[in-house]
Amino acid sequence: MEQQTEILLRKAREGDQHALNLLFRTWYRRAHQMAMRYVSDEHMAREAVQHAFMSVYQHLDQLQQSEKFVSWLYRTVINCCHMEGRKKQRSRLIELNLAEAHQPRAQMADRDLQLAERNRLLMDAVERLPEDQRTIVILKELDGMKFREIADLLQISENTAKSRLYVGLKNLKQILTQQRLIKEMYYEE
């Protein structure tokens, strides 16, 4: 995929609209998943990704190294998520998924309801973390990125990323313990 992305980037820089469309289609799903981790609102995620790709298109000539494209795209998506949150004057970036909230409870099995509620509580707890810790927890634990990728993306050292993750997970555990979610999860299994 890296080689394909590099070719598409080169062609897009040369003005090839088809290559730009292919680049968008190739990376849209991943960018959208990243945005959903931050905002958990379909409309806001789509808006953020759309703005991110517009920004990427406008500044494509400034990208020095094609291999940095993914980090650059993800950083732009994260920034656009923050902008969308501010535009909507929301202090919270992660909230209950609207589709889940509107789904009739009678149609969901009890287990599904419990899992949905746990996920909501977990995401609420992640939201309560300071932004630098929240970002690392999302990138590492939810998106499965490696510390090297996170460090490149956020322009910090790997040790800083590891430290923020450690503190973030420690704080997350404290928040979840206060919410009694950890005890509940432990005793039900």
TrEMBL record:
Decide whether keyword Transcription is in the record.
yes
Q: Which keywords describe this protein according to UniProt?
A: Sigma factor, Transcription, Transcription regulation
A single GO BP annotation from the record? DNA-templated transcription initiation
Does the keyword field hold Chloroplast?
no
InterPro entries in the record, alphabetically?
Answer: RNA_pol_sigma-70-like (IPR039425), RNA_pol_sigma-70_dom (IPR014284), RNA_pol_sigma70_r2 (IPR007627), RNA_pol_sigma70_r4_t2 (IPR013249), RNA_pol_sigma_r2 (IPR013325), RNA_pol_sigma_r3/r4-like (IPR013324), WH-like_DNA-bd_sf (IPR036388)
Start and end residues of each RNA polymerase sigma-70 region domain:
23-90
Which Pfam families does the UniProt record give? Sigma70_r2 (PF04542), Sigma70_r4_2 (PF08281)
User: What positions does the domain RNA polymerase sigma factor 70 region 4 type occupy?
Assistant: 121-172
Q: Which GO terms describe its molecular function?
A: DNA binding; sigma factor activity
Listed transmembrane segments: none
Q: Fetch the Gene3D superfamilies from UniProt.
A: 1.10.1740.10, Winged helix-like DNA-binding domain superfamily/Winged helix DNA-binding domain
- What's this protein's family per the entry? Belongs to the sigma-70 factor family. ECF subfamily.
Q: Which NCBIfam families match?
A: sigma70-ECF (TIGR02937)
Q: What is this protein called?
A: RNA polymerase, sigma-24 subunit, ECF subfamily
